[in-house]
Amino acid sequence: MKTHLFPAIKLTILLIVLLTVIYPAVVWGIAQLSSAAGEGQTLTAQGKTYYRNIGQSFTQDKYFWSRPSAVGYNAAGSAGSNKGPSNQEYLATVQMRIDTLLAHNPGITVSQIPMDLVTASGSGLDPDFSVQAAKVQVARIAKIRNIPEAKLISLINMHTERPLLGLFGPERINVLALNSALDKLSSN
């Protein structure tokens, strides 16, 4: 029994120190090197401060719509819907989102709708969407805000974030930052 008990106690103590002291210290140290020094990135718009890295709900026609959320954009309950692609309720929800998008953007077809405008992300809090998701909404916003489409495309290009090191991940746009810039553009 002693041959198993003492190694198990030593291993337990080692793992406690490693996983509760050393690993968190390393993660904290790496976070200090980030642009926000480990804090959430914020953006102030219309006198309110928002977290840039947490999805916000934009559903008004004058804004670029954000990616749907399975948790109502509640950061306390980050989660996906956990419904598979063959679940009838899930398929009905996606079809409803497609129908709503088509009704509010009459110039587009189903084949032009990017997946990220009708499906929620795994966390339900994705603050970004694809460049295509922004471009399919340009005509609607240009008409409502009376802004030339070319100006909106330029705004999209300015807010497009490139892949990490040019290799990892797709191009993406932070919806909150884009809509904040859109409000500033409209007020000029």
TrEMBL record:
Protein name per Swiss-Prot or TrEMBL: Potassium-transporting ATPase KdpC subunit
Membrane topology: Single-pass membrane protein
A family per Pfam: KdpC
Localization terms from the record: Cell membrane
Keywords associated with the record: ATP-binding, Cell membrane, Ion transport, Membrane, Nucleotide-binding, Potassium, Potassium transport, Transmembrane, Transmembrane helix, Transport
NCBIfam families: kdpC (TIGR00681), PRK00315.1 (NF001454), PRK14002.1 (NF010606)
Family designation: Belongs to the KdpC family.
S-adenosyl-L-methionine is among the record's keywords: no
